[in-house]
Design a protein that fits this description.
Layout: E1 2-4, E2 21-23, H1 72-91, H2 95-109, H3 121-136, H4 142-158, H5 166-181, H6 189-210, E3 215-226, E4 229-236, E5 247-251, E6 260-262, E7 274-279, H7 285-293, E8 299-306, E9 318-324, H8 328-343, E10 351-357, H9 366-373, E11 379-385, E12 395-396, H10 399-406, E13 412-417, H11 420-433, E14 440-442
Parallel strand pairs: 9-10, 9-13, 10-11, 11-12, 13-14
Antiparallel strand pairs: 1-2, 3-4, 3-8, 4-7, 5-6, 5-8
Helix pairs in contact: 1-6, 2-3, 2-5, 3-4, 3-6, 4-6, 5-6, 10-11
Cofactor: FAD; heme b
Protein name: FAD-binding oxidoreductase
Organism: Actinomycetospora aurantiaca
């Protein structure tokens, strides 16, 4: 049975006492899984550039300090960061090509590092390049540096790269960017980029050392809901600390060294188990192998939690949660956490959850939402289905359409979760209706390269 709205939900004001209708959702079809994507091999690297000795870090000045008052050593830091930003702002559109060159140079300089990357190395090399450059560009901006360094630390930890990799990483990065920069590579750019790398690498190493370790986990159940959707439950060897709605990094045996972020469906459990809803996406090496090939008893590795919304259950503004597909895992986690607060006596703010899917099978989580909302008058659920416009128990069209029809949501805090395309469409629609940007929250770790 699934929980569906019997009538539209307005953005504010009095809320009807019951906004749910139970409808059957059984007898779902299944179909065979598709084959995995072929492996892409990085070609031989170009001639490596001369090795450059990395400069020692110096003090980072506040960004508001006038250049005339900045000590000479600190002015070098500012100029280094400016050099990185000036070049990368012109090369960002060529990030994929630069990352390919970066990976080829890195493996030429240090062949042993190739084993730290998955068979399809380009996406991992691109994430490493992106996070490294972001940290380098922020070395003169303390307000931005912490977040950039934390992202770089997670990439280094996921790839299990220790400090012996810093030298080839820095040389390969500078060499790859120089190759594509052309006339943008001004005199002194080598020294500036090397100094910026040194300033970013030190704090990233310290941050990586403080991250929680990787935890082994055993798959205890695997349920195939459709040809491209599965629910997997794992039991970690030790508890994985996480907040409701956070994601964790996962490595499966079918795709070694290829880490992907998955969000546990539901709030943290007393038994420590984690449930993941996984959709096989086009070109997704990890997701397709999990849906088609994961079995009970196999061993996974779980990395530290990250991201996720911070939801204040007792805040004054009402809460809107808009999710699509497996983004429902985030909504389940938030709702279960809020229900727990309500049981503890907290006056939980009114919350509307909109769950969208392409087919009725995608809305399999509505059963659990119905159970949660059954005794909670502050919680309302809406289901939206794109492929069945004649089902009167479901809102027709996409979840973004349903949200826009029920809006505007000017006085709400909004949490959005789903695919990158769904998040972009939702945020654009909310902004167009006048919802302030600082009230819209979504996971900044969502990948565009699939999983």
């Amino acid at each position: 049975m699934s929980a569906e709205p019997a009538e539209p939900i307005g953005p504010s004001g009095a809320r009807p006492g019951r906004l749910l209708r139970l409808v059957p959702t059984t007898n779902r079809p299944t179909a065979p899984a598709r084959d995995s994507t072929a492996t892409t091999v990085i070609p031989a690297a170009p001639t490596a550039p001369p090795t450059t000795v990395l400069a020692a870090p110096v003090t980072v000045p506040p960004p508001t300090t006038p250049l005339s008052a900045v000590p000479a050593a600190d002015l070098v830091v500012v100029r280094a960061a400016e050099a990185v930003r000036a070049v990368w702002s012109r090369l960002a559109a060529s990030e994929a090509e630069v990352a390919h060159w970066f990976g080829a140079l890195l493996f030429s300089l240090a062949p042993g590092l190739r084993t730290h990357f998955p068979a399809q190395a380009d996406p991992a090399a691109r994430r490493l390049l992106r996070s490294t450059v972001a940290a380098m560009a922020a070395v003169d901006r303390p307000g931005e540096l912490d977040a950039a360094v934390a992202a770089l630390a997670r990439e280094l930890r996921a790839l299990e790269l220790d400090d012996t990799a810093d030298e080839p990483l820095g040389v390969a990065l500078v060499g790859a960017v120089r190759e594509f920069a052309g006339d943008l590579w001004a005199p002194g750019a080598d020294d500036a980029w090397v100094r910026a790398f040194s300033l970013a690498a030190g704090p990233a190493r310290a941050a990586a050392a403080e991250l929680p370790g990787v935890v082994g986990a055993t798959v205890v159940s695997h349920r195939r809901l459709s040809w491209d959707l599965a629910v997997v439950e794992v039991e970690p060897d030790s508890p994985v600390a996480h907040r409701a709605g956070q994601s964790v990094s996962v490595e499966v045996p079918q795709r070694p060294c290829l880490w992907r972020r998955l969000t546990p469906a539901g709030a943290p459990r007393a038994d420590g188990r984690l449930e993941f809803h996984v959709r096989a996406v086009e070109g997704g090496w990890v997701s397709r192998s999990v849906v088609a090939h994961s079995r009970s008893g196999e061993r996974w590795r779980i990395g530290p939690a990250e991201g996720g919304p911070v939801v204040d259950p007792g805040a004054e503004r009402e809460l809107l949660v808009v999710v699509g597909g497996t983004g429902a895992s985030v909504a389940l986690a938030i709702c279960e956490d809020l229900v727990g607060h309500a049981a503890a006596g907290v006056d939980v703010r009114p919350t509307t959850v909109m769950v969208g899917g392409r087919t009725p099978e995608d809305l399999h989580t509505l059963d659990r939402f119905a159970d949660l909302a059954g005794g909670e008058p502050w919680l309302a659920i809406v289901g939206a289905c794109e492929s069945d416009p004649f089902d009167t128990a479901l809102a027709p069209g996409s979840v973004v359409d349903a949200m826009s029809r029920s809006g505007p949501w000017l006085e709400h805090d909004v949490v959005v979760a789903g695919s990158p395309a769904m998040i972009r469409a939702s945020v654009a629609a909310l902004l167009a209706d006048g919802t302030p940007l600082d009230r819209i929250h979504y996971d900044p770790f969502t990948d565009d390269d699939g999983s």
